[in-house]
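During the no-cost extension, the postdoctoral fellow (Dr. R.K.) reprocessed legacy sequence entries with the updated structure-token encoder. One reprocessed record is reproduced below for audit purposes.
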Amino acid sequence: MLNKKVLLIGVTGALVLAACAVPAAPMPTAVPTPTEAPTPIAAPAMEAKDIVDTAVAAGSFNTLAAALTAAGLVDTLKGEGPFTVFAPTDEAFAKLDKALLDDLLKPENKDKLVAILTYHVVPGKVTAADVVKLTSAKTVQGEEITIKADNDMVMINDAKVTTPDVMAGNGVIHVIDTVILPPSMK
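Re-encoded structure tokens follow.
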């Protein structure tokens, strides 16, 4: 019986030592070899907002947005473009006589409103770097705007550009502080 106990203690001790021992060499592991490079997952493309959505998102062009809607020009300025818009702010529209603005927004005066609004649009994408090199530009309405650049100030007719180069997916917006009127309507 003593032999069985010694044998049992010996086997147990050997198992304990074997379990605690450091292996002489690491066990080989199988590493898969890639057959193809993984295809990267592209993030969804973020489309830049068009001129109308960019202006609306800014929050200071509510009157312009209402005028574009009344004139039926929203779809045009949401189109492919490119367009350059000299966009008057709500404060710029507030400088107009309220009766005149209310009158322009009436359906029977749509042609006058379209003429005024399209006088604020130049075909193509004309950035500030381009604008300062010009003295005039033909508008979508057909008449020309006068451009004066002096130091850091750019004037479009009698309107000051307060924020240049607001980029949109279909053109560029230059924020102006005054509604400009075509010479034929003065």
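Confidence is low (pLDDT under 50) at residues 1-45. The beta strands are 83-88, 121-123, 136-138, 144-150, 153-156, 159-168, 171-176. The remaining legacy entries will be reprocessed before the final report is submitted.
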